[in-house]
Amino acid sequence: MSYRTQVITVFGGSGFIGRHLIRRLAKSGAVIRIATRTPSKANFLKTAGAVGQIIPFATDCSKDDSVARALQGADVAINLLGVLYERGSQSFQGVHVEAAGRIARLAAAAGVGRLVHLSAIGADAASTSAYGRSKAAGEQAVRDVFPAATILRPSIVFGPEDNFFNKFAAMAQKAPVLPLIGGGKTRFQPVYVGDVAEAVVAALELDSARGRTFELGGPRVYSFRELLELTQKDIRRHRHLLTLPWGTAERLAGFLEKVPVLAPALTRDQVEMLKRDNVAAPGAPGFKDLGITSLATCEVILPTYLSRFIVGGKYSTLTNDTGTNDTGTNGTGTPGAAH
After folding, report:
1. What are the boundaries of the region Disordered (predicted)?
2. 250 forms bridges with which residues in the sheet?
3. Neighbouring residues of 69: CB distance < 8 A, sequence distance ≥ 6
4. Which helix (H) or strand (E) holds 167?
């Protein structure tokens, strides 16, 4: 890969996926603009490249002139913007649809040659989840003005800064039970953040990726129950898995949404998303079509960062929690059962 004479603008580049992608793009020698609302929060990424190669760039993605400045002279644009819940001005419509369409429209106007748009498995105009509908609307907004854009749809992304395994590991440290929403049967295909970053790079290199949509699922499908059990194993905790029927989970989420914190523990829309499997569609273009055949597994990667949740550290000889029981309403009480 060589983009030495090119300029790459990455929207949302200081976020979870962005920080891993920036480090890979920097190896190409390209000048990288990190378009972000708060440039100071992206300063840590400057050391990933040569002096002056990585430039945090103040950008308000709700304004045409600000986005246009970030794209001026750029050869490549990558949109990683996304929110998991709505808070204040950060709405699904504003971030997933309007900002996505604005970036694509102004990228086309600026003569940007390549655009990669990060969406999500579950993007569907008919989804019962507002998140899923907004992701689908965002994809359409991009396609309408930049038909050659490459769209990537990952399943849940895991890595050191993820919002899934870290959340449940932290919960297992303090809570006597973990919530098994809907019985834990929802299936996921977790994908390592480094592999998602490699997919973005591959999408920029392959002409065959233009105008196509790729679904990015990891090497194995797990049930929600299995993922909670795997998390507990890696942090040497064994909490009861309490089954929450959908109605109970929705009522709990309705209460948690009103708690005045920056990140709600659960929202009603997230409960709605859990009602649908989050796996790559059979036959959909994916990693192999991007030339990526070796994918990292949860079993290998999770212990490298979840060890910080182990009491006394990973080399501790403290007695671990024992016993894994299910106190859910299904009444099975079967240790380690997977559905």
Report:
1. 320-339
2. none
3. 57, 59
4. helix 165-174
The DSSP letter of residue 8 is E
4: confidence class by pLDDT, cuts 50, 70, 90: low
- Among candidate residues 1, 32, 4, 28, the one with its CA nearest the CA of residue 18: 32
pTM: 0.91
Tokens of 45: 């990424």
Q: CA 108, CA 236: separation in Å to the nearest integer?
A: 51
Residues 332 and 334: their CA atoms lie apart, in Å, by: 5
Rounded to the nearest 10 degrees, the angle between the axes of helix 193-205 and helix 16-26 is 50
The token pair at 99 is 């900002």
Can you give the residue range of the structural domain that contains 12?
7-161+188-216
Using DSSP, state whether 53 is helix, strand or coil. coil
Residue 28 has pLDDT above 80, yes or no: yes
The residue ranges of DSSP E strands in 53-195, in sequence order, are 54-58, 76-79, 114-118, 150-154, 157-158, 177-181, 187-188, 191-192
Q: What is the DSSP letter of 45?
A: G
CB 269 within 8 A of CB 127: no
Q: Give the residue from 290, 115, 137, 140 showing the smallest Cα distance to 215.
A: 290
* CA dihedral angle for residue 216, residue 222, residue 225, residue 229, rounded to 10 degrees: -100
Phi then psi for 248, rounded to 5 degrees?
A: -65, -45
Q: Which residue has the tokens 């890696």?
A: 234
71: in domain: yes
**How far apart are the C-alpha atoms of 200 and 114, rounded to whole Å?**
11
* Mean pLDDT of the 28-40 span: 96
What would the two tokens of residue 199 be?
């997919």
The pair of three-digit structure tokens given for residue 159, joined into one six-digit string = 């890595």
Pairing of β 222-223 and β 187-188: antiparallel
Strands (E), 252-321: none
Query: What CATH number has the domain bearing residue 81?
Result: 3.40.50.720
